[in-house]
Design brief:
Layout (H helix, E strand, L loop, with lengths): L8 H14 L5 E4 L9 E3 L3 H9 L5 E4 L3 H4 L7 H23 L1
């Protein structure tokens, strides 16, 4: 989601996720956003934990990566992390979705 600073992107994303869960479109919400005392959102900040969360079961999930551009940088120490995120979180689900459309 794109927009200016303090325009409500994070709140809108959380609202969309909550409503999607309430309406039965998804089963679980994960995010790197700390939501105080909220059992509806799994707080996940490590890639290994995110991978386990994604592949633990076949439930429908959404993961909200807040301030994603801060995490997508060209620094060498994060190259493997970014490649993993791109491969596991973007390409695999998109391919699975595409295969269901055929």
């Amino acid at each position: 989601m794109k927009g200016g600073w303090k325009q409500g992107k994070t709140d809108t994303s959380l609202l969309m996720a909550y409503l999607s869960k309430r309406w039965g479109l998804i089963d679980k919400i994960g995010s790197n956003i700390w939501t105080f005392n909220n059992p509806d959102v799994d707080y996940i900040i490590r890639l290994a934990t995110l991978r386990r969360w994604l592949h633990a079961d076949k439930s429908r999930k959404v993961y909200l990566l807040d301030e994603g551009l801060k995490h997508v940088c060209a620094r060498a120490p994060r190259a493997a992390l970014l490649e993993g995120i791109y491969r596991d979180l973007l390409l695999a689900p998109a391919k699975a979705f595409y295969m269901t459309l055929k």
